[in-house]
């Protein structure tokens, strides 16, 4: 698609079939998201002649209008509102055969009669939507959904690359968000955050403003480190995010939160915590055992807090419940030991950029 677009006559399948490789070729040599969104919008509109084709990007709890082709449109849409905000919230494609029958549809143009909205993802998190409007009812169906999802998958992958290369230097720390615990646990969490930052890793965390989570964040920030906080949308709405985060990611669910944190990290470290921490630790151990997480998993047994759990793990091994009789976790006693293990087994990338652009 360097100079011109080749538009074929025929069915919608034939048109998408001709369009997809042209968009793919364009995306191979361009990485700027705005340039990509602009040309994807133009190419789809030129191919099909739809009323409106364009993008909205997430910004906090709203979508903000991005590059588009067609009549002037509303600039901001709240999370969960209209077709676009609903597709974001539900994290899925929405096909609306008749806009009048979609409760809460936002009519940017009175000429719009049907619509399709396809979310796109940056590093596993919804980063925006592609929205297409037609002047006729019933224009879009499963065929459009399937092809446009392919286009958005390529686009999402393209815009994720720089981002992933930037952040695949993370150490995710799982720990309590409670402050009502003995000071020794808060201090150990702060030390863990400090050591992670001083070593040159990015601290990846659930991003809360309380408890061990906040202590680890404070430790990393005081050491001049980067901290990425990954929070499901409802927690951000409740004001639970730590205010000092250098990067805050907003996910539609707890599941996406955990996947996102793992995707960004070369290692996962569990500090004392409650059910949420246990859930995160057990899930990452299961992923490691299944080969779904290739990083290191470390359990910091601060002042013997995890002894009962370690006994449970030992019983699993002894009774043959652990595959190969091995625990998919490294047990250590202190943050310092955890850090020593990390720097020897998965050293941080100090300013290094690997495969920043892979075309
Ligand atoms: N109809 C959309 C709003 C965006 S315009 O169609 C461009 C909605 O309900 O979210």
Would you kindly provide a written description of the structure presented here, covering whatever features stand out?
There is one protein chain. With 359 residues, the protein is α/β, with parallel strands linked by helices. It is built from eleven helices and 13 strands. The strands form two sheets. Strands 10-9-8-7-11-12-13 form a seven-stranded parallel beta sheet, sandwiched between helices. Strands 3-2-1-6-5-4 form a six-stranded antiparallel beta sheet, sandwiched between helices. Strand 7, helix 5 and strand 8 form a beta-alpha-beta unit. Helix 1 packs parallel to helix 4 and helix 5 packs parallel to helix 11. The two termini are 16 Å apart. The site of methionine sulfoxide (SME) has 14 residues, from helix 3 and strand 6.
Lateral strand order in the biggest sheet: 10-9-8-7-11-12-13
Task: Tell me which ligands are bound.
Answer: methionine sulfoxide
Low-confidence stretches: 351-359
End-to-end CA span: 16 Å
Tally of DSSP β-strands: 13
What is the gyration radius calculated from CA atoms? 23 Å
């Amino acid at each position: 698609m360097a100079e011109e677009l080749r538009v074929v006559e025929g069915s919608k399948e034939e048109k998408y079939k001709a369009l997809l490789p042209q968009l793919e070729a364009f995306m191979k040599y361009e990485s700027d998201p705005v340039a990509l969104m602009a040309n994807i919008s133009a190419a789809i509109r030129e191919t099909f002649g739809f009323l409106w084709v364009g993008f909205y990007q997430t910004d906090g709890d709203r979508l903000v209008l991005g590059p588009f082709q067609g009549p002037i449109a509303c600039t901001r849409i709240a999370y969960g509102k209209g077709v676009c905000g609903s597709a974001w919230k539900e994290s899925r494609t929405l096909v609306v055969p008749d806009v009048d029958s979609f409760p809460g549809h936002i009519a940017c143009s009175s000429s719009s009669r049907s619509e399709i909205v396809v979310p796109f993802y940056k590093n596993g998190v919804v980063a925006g939507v592609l929205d297409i409007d037609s002047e006729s009812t019933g224009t879009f169906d499963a065929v459009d959904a399937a092809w446009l999802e392919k286009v958005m998958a390529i686009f999402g992958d393209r815009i994720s690359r720089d981002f992933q290369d930037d952040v695949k230097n993370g150490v995710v720390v799982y720990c309590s968000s409670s402050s009502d615990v003995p000071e020794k646990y808060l201090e150990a969490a702060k030390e863990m955050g400090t050591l992670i930052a001083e070593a040159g890793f990015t601290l990846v965390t659930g991003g809360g403003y309380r408890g061990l989570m906040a202590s680890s964040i404070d430790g990393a920030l005081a050491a001049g480190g980067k901290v990425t906080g990954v929070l499901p949308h409802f927690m951000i709405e409740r004001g639970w995010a730590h205010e000092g985060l250098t990067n805050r990611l907003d996910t539609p669910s707890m599941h996406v939160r955990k996947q996102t944190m793992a995707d960004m990290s070369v290692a996962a470290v569990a500090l004392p915590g409650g059910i949420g921490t246990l859930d995160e630790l057990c899930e990452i151990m299961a992923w490691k055992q299944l080969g779904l997480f290739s990083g290191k998993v470390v359990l910091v047994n601060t002042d013997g807090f995890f002894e009962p759990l370690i006994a449970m793990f030992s019983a699993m091994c002894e009774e043959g419940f652990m595959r190969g009789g091995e625990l998919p976790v490294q047990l250590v006693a202190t943050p310092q030991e955890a850090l020593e293990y990390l720097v020897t087994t998965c050293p941080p990338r100090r300013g290094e950029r690997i495969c920043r652009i892979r075309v």
